[in-house]
Amino acid sequence: MTAKLILGTEIREQILEEITAEVKELKEEYGKVPGLVTILVGENPASISYVTLKIQTAHRVGFKEVQDSQPVDISEADLLALIDKYNKDDSINGILVQLPIPKHINEKKVLNAIDPDKDVDGFHPVNVGRLMIGGSEVKFPPCTPAGIQEMIVRAGVETKGAEVVVVGRSNIVGKPIANMMLQKGPGANATVTIVHTGTKNMEAHCKRADILIVAAGVPGLVKPEWIKPGACVIDVGVNRVGEKISEKTGKKVAILKGDVDFDAAKEIAGSITPVPGGVGPMTITMLMKNTLKSMKFQLGIA
Ligand code: NAP
To answer: Which protein residue has the closest C-alpha to ligand 1 atom 2?
Structure first.
């Protein structure tokens, strides 16, 4: 059996087209487009490339995009004042502070200063609480878990009553996706187990999974024999295992592998995400979805 591939690269295109169409309609009706500000402190090359990708995507879907670059020695007080300025700016619906930020600034204090109603990353404790309560309380589900749920739904995988096993319990992936999948409602209503380094017999838990979500950051952690035949396997792991020369650009690029032994797993699973090209492209896509949602909340139409 060869599993159906669940491609984030394809699903991203569908969702970005949907967002673009909705932004156009809302602009015609309300004369307003969603505003997203990205605050970048310093010149970390990886941060610059993430921010660039976010900016390009925001432009593509028709958002007002503000890139606010600040010097590496900005004081904590000045950064907090900047966030306060955007909190009060009605043309801005989403505020992102690109991490990491320099050590002299308290990261928690900065992230908690973002108005929870503009926290489109969904990491503010208020939004974590809203996610836990579920239902109509949820404003901004965190982007990677939201992308995972969207992929499962769009792949047509039944979640109601499914055994979902999540490998990993981080605050950005494992815990929120487990919480989302157990909520009562569409795309969820599953029976959820989380496994981690303290789990006895991880293999036995994974073998029960109708939907196996792996976010450990350990290449090849999940062996093919741990997969239930026909299961949906979502591999969140992105592990750099070496370098190669790109055929397209002739430049050195990282060789990426997931947490699942993909080649063998695809012969057992019913559906599976590859790495790269699986979950990866979904995170920025869902960030755009949250920013659009934020403007709809502001307009009272969400
Ligand atoms: P993290 O904060 O390091 O958490 C990893 C989790 O996996 C921890 O809960 C850890 O357990 C568990 N774990 C690690 N090794 C394990 C093992 N041998 N057996 C069982 N559990 C194990 O990582 P993260 O931020 O959630 O990210 C996980 C992976 O997803 C990384 O490869 C990351 O690059 C990738 N990722 C991708 C995207 C994307 O594609 N958009 C977004 C976010 C993350 P303990 O809690 O017991 O230590």
So the answer is: 170
Distance 17 CA to ligand 1 centre (A): 31
Phi, psi for residue 162 in degrees, rounded to 5 = -70, 150
| Cβ 146 under 6 angstroms from ligand 1 | no
Q: What are 95's two structure tokens?
A: 């505020």
Is 201's C-beta closer than 6 angstroms to any atom of ligand 1? no
Ligand 1, atom nearest to 174 Cα: 26
**How far apart (Å, rounded) are the C-alpha atoms in residues 105 and 132?**
29
C-alpha atoms less than 13 angstroms from C-alpha of 272 in its C-beta half-sphere: 27
What's the chain's length in residues?
Answer: 302
Contact yes or no for 235/257 (Cβ under 8 A): no
Q: Is the CB–ligand 1 distance for residue 281 below 6 Å?
A: no
The pLDDT of residue 1 is: 64
Cα–Cα distance for residue pair 286/161, rounded to 1 Å = 25
Number of alpha carbons in the 13 Å side-chain half-sphere of residue 231: 24
Mean pLDDT by 10 residues, the chain (302 residues): 94 98 98 98 95 97 97 98 98 97 97 98 97 97 98 98 98 98 97 98 98 98 98 98 93 95 97 98 98 98 94
Cβ–ligand 1 contact at 258 (below 6 Å):
no
Q: How would DSSP label each residue in 120-189? A: TT--SHHHHHHHHH-GGG-S---HHHHHHHHHHHHTT---TT-EEEEE---TTTHHHHHHHHHSSSTT--
